[in-house]
Amino acid sequence: MEEKCEGSKSVTVSSGFTKIVSIAEKSLRYCLIAILLFWSCMLMFVFILNWEGWFFGIRIAGLYAGIYLFTEGLTALLLAVSVIRFPKKRVISGTLSLIFFSFILLDSGVTRQTLHPGSTSIPELFVIFSLIPILYLISCIGKEYSGKKYP
């Protein structure tokens, strides 16, 4: 599909869409890497200082908390590395990041309801952390299918 513009230039609509999706994918990719690294560093900091945490409203401390914090931090770090190292597998790494941050959102929501019964608010930071992988995944799928020709 082509659209005529001033100066008799022929502009394809799909190339404009591809450019927008490419820019969105690249910027969201950097945001996703940043929040994954931030989350990993934050959990490693807690792992070093204080082995204590919450798992779906249950307070854990000691060795179990250390294992949980280390595993969650390592998972975030491995996801960041997969986003960086495997750009051709961006849909897979985006899906895994979405699953990871959805787990974090669900865990924090259940913990908040357990600690403060009747609270109707949800953790805004974790909603943003879950929204970035969703947008990244949408942009990756858009980039994946924008270059394909359909009959």
UniProtKB/TrEMBL annotation:
Question: Where does the chain cross the membrane?
Answer: 30-51, 63-84, 91-110, 122-142
Keywords associated with the record: Membrane, Transmembrane, Transmembrane helix
Q: Does the keyword Transmembrane helix apply?
A: yes
Q: Please, which domain of life does this record's source organism belong to?
A: Archaea
- Could you identify this protein by its name? Uncharacterized protein
